[in-house]
Design brief:
With about 150 residues, this protein is an alpha+beta fold. It has two domains: about 10-75, Roll (Ubiquitin-like (UB roll)), CATH 3.10.20; about 95-135. Helix content is about 35%, strand content about 15%. It has helices spanning about 25-30, 40-55, 95-100, 115-135, and strands spanning about 10, 15-20, 40, 60-65, 70-75.
């Protein structure tokens, strides 16, 4: 996390965003807790940096000052263009895709390497559970006759 901005507080006269490729400026402005006319100091810079990183959209964020303009320079995380499921025989493909989408692995989603660890654990657990269900023996009830004593 880098904040490349003058240490002196200033009033924001304008905000410019650079480095966007897929994410819209509007999205950045929605998450940026700074508006034109705000007084920007070290604490507010820290808040802005944390807010932008917390989106998970960016690999790098820099805040710079150009006169009274706040310049927000970002490097987006890559997005997932495509992924394929191969060799899956234990879990319905639709169920697997839905579960993967829920943890953030889907076409168009922002790529986050930590999600891969979650996916690996999910797949390991799911495949183990499916294998256990296939190999579990179901006890059969024996035919029992009831005899009546007199």
């Amino acid at each position: 996390m880098r904040a490349q901005i003058a240490q002196e507080p200033f009033t924001v006269g304008d905000i410019r965003i650079e480095g966007l490729q897929r994410i819209s400026e509007g999205t950045v402005f929605n998450y940026l807790p700074v508006n034109i006319g705000d007084h920007l100091d070290g604490q507010r810079i820290g808040e802005a940096m944390r807010a932008l990183y917390a989106t998970g959209f960016f690999r790098d964020v820099e805040l710079r000052r150009d006169g009274n303009t706040l310049l927000v320079v970002v490097v987006e995380r890559p997005s997932i263009a495509k992924f394929e499921l191969k060799g899956n025989k234990d879990i319905k493909t639709e169920d697997l895709q839905k579960s993967l989408r829920n943890v953030g692995l889907a076409t168009g989603k922002t790529f986050d390497r930590s999600v891969l660890d979650e996916v690996k654990q999910y797949l390991t657990d799911s495949i183990s559970a499916a294998a256990n269900m296939r190999s579990a023996s179901i006890p059969r009830s024996r035919n029992c006759r009831a005899t009546r004593s007199t």
